[in-house]
Here is the input.
Amino acid sequence: MRILRRIGLYAVLGLAALTFIYPFLWMASSTFKPREEFGSLALIPDHFTLDNYRTMWARAPFGRALLNSTMVATTITLAVLVFGSITAYAMARLSFRGRPVLNAATLAVLLVPGQLTLIPLYTLIVQLGWIDTYTALIAPYLFNATAILMLRQFFLQIPQSLIDAARMDGMSELRILFTIFWPLSKPVLSIVAIFTFMGSWNEVLWPLLVVRDQQLMTLPQLLTVFALGGGAGSVGVSLASAMVLVIPVVVAYAFLQRNFIESMAGAGIKG
Here is the structure.
């Protein structure tokens, strides 16, 4: 009976996994199908073609948009890791006046929907003259309250004796952070990096507000403009554009998957 239950469980899990992964596999295979095969549910095209990708690259500067998205998402991710860990270290391990207020303010930021800050933030960007610049895409996301709180909670679990020993050796606070805390915090740093990269990579609304120059557009923004303007022309071209958007995120997750799972498992064990 135990073997039968396990087989049944694996069958259900396999069916659930197939339900989630099949649409993605169909989308990937359909990018290599000619127009007349889009109605087929088969995963292997009868007539393999790259015309959808050729049409996509010919109709809009997707190469430049891909570079823009990579630069913007990578810069934001690195900034969130560095600035967020510095802030989290100060909140977790340093004593200073106003620390409780800072903790409360960080929590309060999470309670405010991001849509409410769009108008004042856009007004500030206009007054600073940052419209149609990379700064407008990057500056509002240099700090992330969720990342700060996650890092702070992890830093609180590191023994104080390590910090005391490092201070006795004459190490500065920044050196303690980057040479002791960071190596011990790889799982939480990985999960913060994945979520930050995915969030900045998939952002559409904010770039639509602050960037109008096609040479500065990110990939999701250009895909949105491309689709709304009727530039896709066919389902295959639209699916090819979506695949270009998805692949970098999949690659980033593949590199950080081990630490991501360790972080999730550790959080579950510690409650």
Q: What stands out?
A: The two ends are 33 Å apart (CA to CA). DSSP finds 13 helices and no strands in the chain.
